[in-house]
Design goal:
Elements: H1 8-22, H2 26-29, H3 47-53, H4 58-61, H5 75-87, H6 106-109, H7 114-133, E1 138-142, H8 148-156, E2 161-165, H9 168-192, E3 203-206, H10 212-217, H11 228-234, E4 239-240, E5 252-260, H12 262-273, E6 277-285, H13 308-312, H14 319-324, H15 329-334, H16 337-360, H17 362-365, H18 375-398, H19 412-429, H20 440-448, H21 454-462, H22 465-481, E7 487-493, E8 504-510
Parallel strand pairs: 1-2, 1-5, 2-3, 5-6
Antiparallel strand pairs: 3-4, 6-8, 7-8
Length: 511
């Protein structure tokens, strides 16, 4: 079935279908994979699925979150994957026919990585297009970071821009970078003899707690050079840079590039509560940081759920589900076999280390310890080993007549050694002494028989991620659709999901 979200009733129907489907899998959604071995989590899944997938090729397992299945899989598993795919909002990058996208000038893209450049180039063009349709008001870049989006909107698209961020360091970096860019533009104009006015730098505001009230206050305060103290009082103590604007129009467009957690929610609420905000362009991120209204909590300003329709269903996600909503099917499918196996091995190490904590440090385990992102160092080591192994394989093939592929697997000794190093590093991060009589090899031997199940389990669980993200996005969309004011709202994927997985923009305008 193909679902639509053009009206609040259609959106609610889609939301209800998602909830009906995922509720029987709450055990899987709420599982924490660090407890895979300790709690024998594979036993809760359909044993026919696990029996089939334990011998499946890693590259096929990695495609499960993207909705791909194999013909020989059980019918119930194929139905599960296909249904999840049908319930997920499409992520294929949309063709933006009415948007005039300009390539970023080198001075503006300086310092951006490929992902950031892709995002800023596309989003700035979308925001500029929206601004022109609502009377060319001031743009507020919410959660501006180092000001990349704000500076492109200001210098390349010639809009009046305010950049807001909670970090004073980011504000200083934004100001310094903007000054360099303005100097470059001024030099280019002098060189060409152009009489055009050099674009103004974006104004920056540092605000520790961004709220709907704070954003509303922007519509009341003129941006003049000599009103720093007044502005600071009016905006609850923010820091301002000087602006060359004598006055600022009292209408705004809010734009957020991956505004984390409740920040995206605050933008949407401000749009609805403040008539001076003519439009909003929001791309959310970090759903794990959302505040959530439980059935016992009557707070109306939590990040999830937002809509009256979803609140009426009395459905809650929970932290593990919000974490899972951040999973990227496209990132999974882009992993090669080697990288996939390395990922699964690292998850096995972490889950086996949880068994160590459970047996020897139960008081530490009770605190839900985190051991940091050790995976990167181990992944680099494994990649080096993989390259060395491949070189040895190629050399061996030159000296033999047979050209059969040689399976690249780590020896048992190498795996045990890697697990020991992983544990020692984890002990260090948790400030724990390593008992001399602790037999890590015995723990690994206990877990090893089930390590081939962690990849299938992790992939099946990750397949729920896009649906959970869809639920969060549809809740935000329905919140806007439920409002009485005449507004136009769309939800559209504007980035390439393989480059930027959180690629869905919610765009709303007052009519």
């Amino acid at each position: 079935m193909k679902y639509c979200c053009n009206t609040s009733s259609e959106t609610l129907e889609w939301i209800s279908a998602i909830i009906d489907f995922i509720e029987p899998f709450s055990f899987l959604i709420n599982a924490h994979v660090v407890n895979f071995f300790k709690d024998k989590q594979w036993e809760a899944l359909d044993q026919e699925w696990m029996s089939c997938l334990r011998d499946e090729k890693p590259e096929n397992i990695l495609l499960i979150p993207s909705g791909h299945v194999q013909d020989h899989w059980p019918a119930s598993l194929k139905d599960f994957v296909h249904t999840l795919r049908s319930l997920s909002f499409p992520r294929e990058q949309a063709i933006l026919a009415d948007v005039d996208m300009l390539p970023l000038r080198p001075v503006l893209s300086q310092g951006m990585n490929l992902k950031k450049k892709h995002e800023v180039e596309l989003l700035s063009s979308v925001v500029s297009s929206v601004v022109h349709t609502v009377g060319n008001p001031t743009v507020v870049d919410v959660g501006a970071g180092q000001g990349y989006l704000a500076q492109v909107l200001s210098f390349q698209y010639k809009h009046s821009v305010v950049a807001i961020d909670s970090s004073s360091h980011h504000g200083k970096v934004t100001d310094a970078r903007a000054a360099r860019i303005r100097k470059h533009f001024a030099a280019q104009m002098r060189k060409s003899g152009s009489g055009n006015k050099c674009p103004d730098v974006p104004m920056t505001i540092t605000c520790r707690v961004l709220s709907t009230e704070m954003l509303k206050a922007l519509t009341d305060v003129p941006l003049e050079k000599n009103d720093l103290e007044l502005n600071a009082c009016a905006l609850e103590g923010p820091r301002r840079s000087q602006s060359t604007d004598a006055n600022r129009p009292c209408s705004l467009v809010l734009a957020g590039l991956h505004a984390c957690g409740d920040l995206s929610v605050t933008m949407l609420r401000t749009f609805m509560e403040c008539k001076e905000v003519k439009a909003v362009v929001s791309i959310g991120c970090c759903y794990n940081l959302l505040t959530e209204k439980s059935s016992e909590n009557s707070c109306s300003h939590s990040g999830f759920p937002m809509s009256t329709g979803l609140k009426s269903l009395r459905f809650s996600l929970g932290k593990n589900a919000r974490d899972l909503a951040c999973q990227s099917a496209e990132r999974w499918s882009s992993l090669g076999e080697d990288a996939g196996l390395q990922n699964f091995e690292l998850h096995s190490f972490r889950a086996a280390f949880q068994m160590v904590l459970s047996k020897h440090y139960p008081e530490v385990l009770a605190t839900s310890p985190t051991i940091g992102r050790q995976g990167k160092a181990f992944r680099r080591q494994q990649q080096r080993k993989s390259l060395e192994t491949r070189a040895t394989v190629d050399s061996t093939r030159k000296d033999t007549d047979e050209k059969k592929p040689i399976k690249q697997t780590s020896s048992k000794f190498d795996t045990c050694s890697s697990f020991t190093k992983f544990c020692l590093s984890a002990f260090s991060r948790l400030n724990l002494e390593h008992p001399q009589d602790l037999d890590l090899l015995a723990t690994w031997n206990e877990a090893e028989a089930f390590t081939e199940l962690i990849g299938p389990y992790w992939s099946i669980r990750a397949a729920l991620g896009p649906v959970l993200e869809t639920l969060i996005l549809l809740d935000r969309l329905m919140f806007l659709q439920e409002q009485g004011d005449p507004i136009e709202v769309v939800m559209i994927p504007i980035f390439d999901p393989t480059i930027s997985p959180r690629n869905v923009a919610i765009i709303a305008k007052r009519l």
